[in-house]
């Protein structure tokens, strides 16, 4: 795996160099330096799970056949397109949320001299994707399908972000709006499509498949993405900050979290009153009251049960798929997230 990772990072350097010398724009020394610094700060800094899973998935679809150098490069390039997309979302997301840190360092817009220039940087990141696709995939029979896929997933993700933002509008905090249906919609659009479906869809297109023939695969991956977010919501409250790498703030941020939705389903009138009074307040004592209520309602037990049921349901769905190679891809995703602690 470390071998694949180093190859993946090599391809980043190639793509970055191509973008910094794109003939469609006349770079000055300063502008080239700015874009390079912006890319290095925002694109390769994460866990790279989404990008690397394009390579993993394609290898599994090829059922053990050795990949050519060209195939390795192209799967890496598609993986990086997803990492570019992620960077674009996060740069703008941090501005909207007025966040302080991201991946253990100050958010890009918090850097000296950056500020709101980060909005344009986000747009540059987004525009790099079609440049990469055009340079390396223009002659491929699936080129138009790739463009279509990235455009559609971006539309779904930004629309999911909108539902999330308008649900948590300051001054309109209303817990009664929160339900499992709303939680699912936000998660499905904001996270599941680009984090789970997109890497596999890229691999399927490269393997010569038609995406319309794989609606079931899409449904399973979206369900997996939902499960992943429920785990995130759970870890935000019950995970250990030193393990998950961040201090959870869903309670004070008034997030439509799986935990608060489950709490609303299970609590009596008195407990509901306590939740309404204390949820979404940036005061540690109030946050602790909510966490205490979660424990009283045994949300840890409810989560363990949910995880078990979801895992079994997903596994059954995967095993009914006619293709063993596709099963292997889906099982690989599931095994990476089942019972994760971070």
UniProtKB/TrEMBL annotation:
Gene3D superfamilies xref list: Farnesyl Diphosphate Synthase (1.10.600.10)
UniProt GO MF annotations: (2E,6E)-farnesyl diphosphate synthase activity; dimethylallyltranstransferase activity; metal ion binding
Cofactor(s), by name: Mg(2+)
GO BP annotations, alphabetical order: cholesterol biosynthetic process; farnesyl diphosphate biosynthetic process
Pfam family name, one: polyprenyl_synt
Recorded superkingdom: Eukaryota
GO CC terms in record: cytoplasm
Pathway(s) where this gene product acts: Isoprenoid biosynthesis; farnesyl diphosphate biosynthesis; farnesyl diphosphate from geranyl diphosphate and isopentenyl diphosphate: step 1/1; Isoprenoid biosynthesis; geranyl diphosphate biosynthesis; geranyl diphosphate from dimethylallyl diphosphate and isopentenyl diphosphate: step 1/1
Keyword annotations from UniProtKB, A to Z: Cholesterol biosynthesis, Cholesterol metabolism, Isoprene biosynthesis, Lipid biosynthesis, Lipid metabolism, Magnesium, Metal-binding, Steroid biosynthesis, Steroid metabolism, Sterol biosynthesis, Sterol metabolism, Transferase
Family: Belongs to the FPP/GGPP synthase family.
Function, as annotated: Catalyzes the sequential condensation of isopentenyl pyrophosphate with the allylic pyrophosphates, dimethylallyl pyrophosphate, and then with the resultant geranylpyrophosphate to the ultimate product farnesyl pyrophosphate.
Protein name as catalogued: Farnesyl diphosphate synthase
Source species of the chain: Lithocarpus litseifolius
Organism lineage: Eukaryota, Viridiplantae, Streptophyta, Embryophyta, Tracheophyta
